[in-house]
Each structure stands twice: as C-alpha cells, then as structure tokens.
C-alpha cells in the first residue's frame, strides 16, 4: 500500500481502540522492550504520547528507563523548520502541550543527536522491511539522519507489520526493530 493510504487507514484503526485496549497494548509493548538486547546504553530518546492521536502510551516505558538508570531525552518541535530539539528529562523538567497536543519540555539541558544510543519512534504503520509511515511531515526522518549510524532505531506499534510500503524511498530512515504487543520485529 501507499503511505497516504496507510496513514489514513491506521489513523482510523487507532481511533477505533478504546482507552482500556490502548493501555493494555501499550503495557504489552513496554513488557516486550524489557527482553530486548538494548540495555547496555546510556542515552534513550523517548517520544511523549499525543493522547488525542491514540499513540502508544510511553508512560509505561519511562519507569523502565528510569529504573535502569538511563538518561532519558525528549524533544521539542519546531514546526517552521520541521525539526526537533532534544532535551534531557530531569525531575525539574516542565512540560507543556503544544498546539498539536504534543507534550514538550519548556526548557532544559540540550542533548545533541550524536549522543543518542537508542531512539523509540512513533509511527502509524510499518512493513516487514523496516520502513515506517509517520504523520508525513518528515520530523523523524530528518532527526534520525543526524543520529550516529549505530544508534538503535525502535518503532513502537499497536498493530502488526504490513507486507510492504510500496512508495518507501532511500530517504526514508529504516528501523532496526519494531515492537508490537505480540512481537519484536528485527530488521538488522
């Protein structure tokens, strides 16, 4: 399927989930992450859930990261430039939702992309080759291109892989893994 078709279909599928289903599936994803070979690193980038879009609820992942004494990094969006700026999450970090409903740090300690070891990535759909479909603005593709080649890219998805995203290009940054409630897909 084409990205545009997948984007439309999976936005509808997510909206059909009730809050209990979404929370349960998000918790299953967090539990899957515990079993992955990714915990020897230091800097973990985590997206904060857009509740209105029924994204994977990353509040189940945050205690795992903190419990393992990891440095958690979150982003702030610049919609004029289509870029993300990254900040260390601390107990003093103040969050405020932007006009798109994304919780973001008001200010804080900047973290450059080349420091990031693991990045958890929001998505609408993904395929069996590690290609993903996001919201279509390219924020994460631009961000991931600035990361080190060995940065581990992990998509989080409520739904299983589609067979192929037919209009994926070389400019699309591929995932190393995608974690669903039932499966860990590896694309390495």
Care to give the gist of this entry?
By secondary structure, the protein is of the alpha/beta class. Helices cover 22% and strands 23% of the residues.
**How would you write the strand order of the largest sheet?**
3-2-1-6-9-10-11
Number of helices: 4
Oligomeric state of this protein: single chain
Please report the distance between the alpha carbons of the first and last residues.
23 Å
Largest sheet: 7 strands, mixed
Shape: globular
Poorly predicted runs: none
Describe the protein's architecture and organization.
This protein is of the alpha/beta class. The chain contains four helices and eleven strands; from the N terminus they run ααβαβββββββαβββ. Strands 3-2-1-6-9-10-11 form a seven-stranded mixed beta sheet, sandwiched between helices. A two-stranded antiparallel sheet has the order 4-5. It has a two-stranded antiparallel ribbon with strand order 7-8. The longest helix has 16 residues, at 19-34. The chain is globular and about 40 Å long.
């Amino acid at each position: 399927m084409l990205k545009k078709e997948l984007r439309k279909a999976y936005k509808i599928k997510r909206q059909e989930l009730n809050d209990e289903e979404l929370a349960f599936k998000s918790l299953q994803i967090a539990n899957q992450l515990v079993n992955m070979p990714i915990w020897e690193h230091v800097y973990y980038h985590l997206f904060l859930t857009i509740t209105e879009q029924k994204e994977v609820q990353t509040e189940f992942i945050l205690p795992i990261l903190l419990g393992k004494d990891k440095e958690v990094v979150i982003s702030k969006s610049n919609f004029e430039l289509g870029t993300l700026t990254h900040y260390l999450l601390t107990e003093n970090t103040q969050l405020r939702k932007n006009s798109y409903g994304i919780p973001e740090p008001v200010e804080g300690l900047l973290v450059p992309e080349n420091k990031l070891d693991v990045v958890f990535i929001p998505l609408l759909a993904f395929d069996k080759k590690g290609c993903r479909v996001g919201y279509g603005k390219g924020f994460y593709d631009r961000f991931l291109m600035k990361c080190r080649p060995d940065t581990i890219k992990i998509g989080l998805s409520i739904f299983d892989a589609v067979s192929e995203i037919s209009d994926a290009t070389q400019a699309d940054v591929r995932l190393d893994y995608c974690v669903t409630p039932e499966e860990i897909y590896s694309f390495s």
